[in-house]
Amino acid sequence: MTAGLDAMLAALEQLLPDRVSRRPADLAAAAHDASSLPAARPDAVVWPLSTDDVVAVVRLASERAIPLTARGAGSSLEGNPIPVRGGIVLDCSRMTRVIAVRPEDLQVDVEPGVVYAALNRELRPHGLFFPPSPGGSADVATIGGMVANNASGIYSVKYGGTRDHVRAATVVTGTGELLRLGNRCRKSASGYHLLGLLVGSEGTLAIATELTLALAGRPAARRQGGFRFADATAAARATAELIRFGIDVAAVEFLDDRTIAALNRFGAFDLVEAPALLLEVHGSEAGVAEAWQAAEDVVRGTGGVPLVLPEGRDAWTIREHATRAIAALRPTAATVRADLAIPIG
Q1: Equal CATH topology for 2-91 and 98-217
Q2: DSSP for 135-152?
Q3: CA gap 151, 157 in Å, rounded
Q4: What is the torsion angle, in degrees rounded to the nearest 10, for the CA atoms of residue 89, residue 165, residue 101 and residue 137?
Q5: 196 vs 161, 169, 183, 250, CA distance in Å?
Q6: Would you say 179 and 170 are in contact if contact means Cβ atoms under 8 Å apart?
Q7: Domain 98-217 falls in which CATH fold?
Q8: For residue 72, how many C-alpha atoms fall within 13 Å in the half-sphere facing its CB?
Q9: pLDDT tens digits along 15-27
Q10: Whole-number Å distance between alpha carbons of 217 and 124
């Protein structure tokens, strides 16, 4: 592969000057993500700036049978961007244009390297936001990575996951063919749902270079809080009851007793070491008050007791420390992180 790779890189350096690297530091950075999975060093890293750049790189790699792995911010916890077969890493993090914001249509067109938090800052003056939240990686996770992984996040209970918000995409297939999938309409009954296949395919079917996203109105008010339970079964029952009674919750997060114990050891929160739910509701001022009261009634009815933190801090502040608290229990061990979801509805 070395001769073919060298020839390809020489061709790429002509097409993308100063955006092809074999520097050890760049290869090391592209060898891993945020997971504890083993790193795999690529042979080169390429930074496209446009759809045409992606087409050129993919075609050259395809013609020479060089492995190619697409990468966003590398914040994945599943090893998706690790180039296990070496070859080329196509780093899309410099494709950062917000192409168009259409407030009247509740839509935005973006390139894949746009960071989630940066996008929502740009949408804020329009009273809009992109709901699927990558949680603690919001300041680094890219839209392209979220689409590749079908990121859902804490607000999927109310707003759905990333797949529910992708209306259209310009994509480059593995042979360098350019396709336009979907359209700007919410409803479409024509042909196969190829766009749905793309979202969550982790770059195995095609690489998205432009995306049309559906947005939501930024809620006028929100309220957060937490409740502890005698056991995990009671917490699960409370979650089921919230959904069954149609309580309009935006987020429901579960922490088991061992996580609470780790948090106490890590941050001296002085919490009762019992399973807990963290709840959040969105809406108008009146709507939030009504929804929170309804949620609290349901949760208390299943045995929930409000979480009280020192100095009156919001219960949700403990969530951001959970991973570090668990890792601190065994600092020399690898921490494997993954999302779990309860199958309701």
Answers
A1: no
A2: GGGTTT-BHHHHHHHT--
A3: 13
A4: -50
A5: 12, 11, 12, 24
A6: yes
A7: 3.30.465
A8: 31
A9: 899 999 999 999 9
A10: 9
Backbone angles phi, psi at 222, to 5 degrees: -150, 155
Task: Give the number of other Cβ atoms within 10 Å of residue 332's Cβ.
Answer: 4
Residue-range domain boundaries for the chain: 2-91, 98-217, 221-329
b/e 304-313 (16+ beta carbons within 10 angstroms → b)? beebebeeee
In this prediction, residue 121 carries a pLDDT of 97
Q: What is the pTM of this model?
A: 0.90
CATH of 2-91, one of 2.40.420.20, 3.40.50.300, 3.30.43.10, 3.40.50.12780: 3.30.43.10
Residues 60 and 33: their CA atoms lie apart, in Å, by 25
pLDDT at 189: 67
- Residue 1 pLDDT: 61
128, pLDDT greater than 90: yes
What are the strands, taking DSSP E only, across the chain?
20-21, 44-46, 68-71, 88-91, 98-102, 107-110, 128-129, 166-173, 178-182, 206-214, 216-217, 221-228, 249-255, 276-283, 305-306
For domain 221-329, say whether CATH 1.10.10.10 is its number. no
Phi first, then psi: what are they for 207, rounded to 5°?
Answer: -115, 120
3-state secondary structure at position 50: coil
C-alpha pair distances (Å), 68 with each of 18, 89, 173, 250: 19, 6, 12, 38
SS3 of 329, please?
A: helix
Write the DSSP string, 273-285.
SS-EEEEEEEE-H
Spatial CA neighbour of 146 closest among 76, 99, 78, 195: 76
Residue type, 314: D
The structure tokens 């045995």 sit at: 303
**322-330 contacts: CB < 8 A, separation 24 or more?**
322/255, 322/259, 322/262, 322/263, 323/136, 324/266, 325/259, 325/262, 325/263, 325/265, 325/266, 325/267, 326/259, 326/262, 328/262, 328/265, 328/266, 329/262, 329/265
